[in-house]
Structure formats: structure tokens, C-alpha cells
Amino acid sequence: MKILVTGGAGFIASHIVDALIEHGNQVVVVDNLSTGFKRNLNPRAKFYHISITDKKLAEIFDIEKPDIVSHHAAQMVVARSVRDPIFDASENILGGLNVILNCVRTRVKKIIYASSGGAVYGEPQAFPVSENYPINPVSQYGVSKHVMEHYLYLYNVLEGLDYTVLRYSNVYGPRQNPAGEAGVVAIFAGQMLRGEQPAIFGDGTKTRDYTFVSDIVQANLLAMEHGSKSICNIGTGIETSDKKMFDILARIFHFEKEPIFTAARKGEVYRISLNNSLARRELGWEPRFSLEKGLEMSADYYRQINTTK
Ligand SMILES: NC(=O)c1ccc[n+]([C@@H]2O[C@H](COP(=O)([O-])OP(=O)(O)OC[C@H]3O[C@@H](n4cnc5c(N)ncnc54)[C@H](O)[C@@H]3O)[C@@H](O)[C@H]2O)c1
Questions:
Q1: CA separation for the pair 281, 278 (Å, rounded)
Q2: 46 vs 66: CA distance, rounded Å
């Protein structure tokens, strides 16, 4: 099969590209390298350096005629969406709509969309949160990620475009950028390896549901075959506080300094964890990597890039 992956030079989708190629698929990557890197690009993928907001995206769809589209390109930093909501909406809503319209026009069989279970529910009161819980995002990013879900439903009803929405929890693992503005595991790992004191936004009790990137890849492979017209949470259901994450990483890296506690950031939810029962039923997915195992594997990667810099 031919699969077009948007954001395929980024953290998550570059792993998806590798797995798709390993499974014998032809892969086309569309990425503007705004937060992605050439070094993440699989040499066996065909690469187009272009924004998903560009009208010329249509030419790529016409040339490549993909069977399936995996849509991962996005502005993915909550804090940036709060600072610059117009930019966030332009990339995530208008760019996303451009991708969907091209899927419809060229009769793509299915689109798999990376949504955010960490952002679309806002501040739920019941944990782990299920897909039928009210959607009340508390950041512009949460809004823009959710709007795409409406368009996918709409273009299925109007034009028969099939889709699976995967609402990821917090994803971590090799290739997440330690110099980025989001991705606490990568940021803490980079800081600890440089001997710098990591900053925790808030008092350390904020929680997140951490899923290892290989488990996310598996969910995407399963969604190629299963989960027609469905929206599934992809998470572990386990909450880990910021302070606990700091402590685990400090132990792994033998880091002895204390964290710095600074003001909580606007738009960041206080608690989140995702109920994954639907993904188990619809996709046959389950998380395989424990937090400890995933963090050890991530730590190996950060040690390696720290010494090869
Ligand atoms: N990392 C997480 O914890 C997480 C959680 C939930 C959802 N997601 C979603 O998963 C997707 C991938 O996130 P990631 O963590 O790998 O981030 P990332 O920043 O590493 O990857 C995004 C990729 O998209 C590219 N991109 C951005 N804007 C683009 C544009 N206009 N045109 C073409 N390419 C563009 C970037 O260059 C980058 O390669 C995003 O849609 C994000 O919203 C991520």
C-alpha cells in the first residue's frame, strides 16, 4: 500500500514511517521541517518539503495517489497555541482541512488522525476519561485538534471518507526533541544530562498519562485495518505526577539536584489519564511498554545523543 504521512520528519510520525516501510509499504512524507528534522527521515521514504497549508499539496496528492493518509503534521505546543492562537488554527485547522479535502478529492481510502486525548477533554472530573466524556478543551490547541474530528465525521457523512481518530495521551520516547517546548521526558532528560535544574510548572502534583512511542506506532498499524469511523483514546490509564516523573528520571540519570518549581502555565490541564477500553475492543490495541521500560529506552537514546553532539 502507499501511505502518505504528514509530519513524518517529526518525533512520532518518523517512527510510524519506519514501521510502515518495514511492513513493506511505500511511504511518502510531507513535512515543512518546522519542528521535524531531516535526520529523522527514513531514506526509503519519498520526501516533500512543503507545508500542509500550501495549495501545492494538491499536486503531491495527484502525483502520489496515496491509499491511506496518516495525518500527524501540526503545531503541537499548548503554550504556543495560547500565545499565538491564529498560528495554531492556521496550521491545525486550515492545514488539516487542506489535507482532508485532498483526501476526498483523490479518493483516499482512509485517513488516520493524531488527535490529543490530553487536550480535548479539558479538565475532566472522572478518571481515566472515556471517549464519551464531554469535550471542553481549555487551550486553543485542544480546540484546534478537536475541530478536525468534526471535519472527519462530516466528510465521512458527505463524501464517504473513512477515518480513525487516535486521541493520544502524552507520548514519549527516542527522537522527542529535548530542546522543544513540549515533551517533559525529553526536556528533563536533556537538562539532567547537562546538569541543569529542570523546572516543574506548578507544584509537581499535576498528572499526565505517558505512552511509549512504540505503543503509539502499534496503534497506527492496527488502525490501517481496524477502527473504521471510530475515535479511540490511546493511553495507559495511569496517572504520573510531574514530581514522580522527575524522581524516576533523576534515579535513571543519577541526578542529584532538586527541581525548580515555577508558575503553572495557562492552557495546561491539571489531571489527565485515558481509558483505553475502546481501543482494546475496536483496534485490538493495548500498551505493551511499562513506564519504567519506556523511560530506560528513552534514556539510552538521550545519553547517546548527548555524547555524540
Ligand atoms: N507528542 C505528544 O505527546 C502528542 C500527544 C497528542 C497528540 N500529538 C499529535 O501527534 C502529532 C505529532 O506530534 P509530535 O510530538 O511528533 O510533534 P513533532 O513536532 O515532533 O512533529 C510534528 C511534525 O509536523 C511537521 N509540521 C508542523 N507543521 C507543519 C506544516 N504546516 N506542514 C508540514 N509539516 C508540518 C513538523 O516539522 C514535525 O516534523 C501532532 O499532530 C500532535 O498534535 C502528540
A1: 5
A2: 12
Ligand 1 binding pocket includes 230 (Cβ within 6 Å): no
pTM above 0.85, yes or no: yes
Decide: 9 and 33 in contact? Cβ < 8 Å: yes
Which domains, ranges and CATH numbers included, belong to the chain? 2-172+210-236+277-283 (3.40.50.720), 184-207+239-272+289-307 (3.90.25.10)
Q: Residues 152, 115: contact at Cβ < 8 Å? A: no
* Nearest ligand 1 atom to alpha carbon 145: 43
Measured from the Cβ of residue 240, the count of other Cβ atoms closer than 10 Å reads: 18
Predicted confidence at residue 306, as pLDDT, reads 82
The catalytic site residues sit at 141
Which residue bears the cell 521526558?
Answer: 185
Q: How many CB atoms lie within 10 A of CB 163?
A: 26
Cβ(170) to ligand 1 under 6 A?
Answer: yes
Which three-class secondary structure state does DSSP give residue 30? strand
Q: Say if residue 309's pLDDT is above 60.
A: no
- The predicted pLDDT at position 174 comes to 98
Q: Is 200 in the pocket of ligand 1 (CB under 6 A)?
A: no
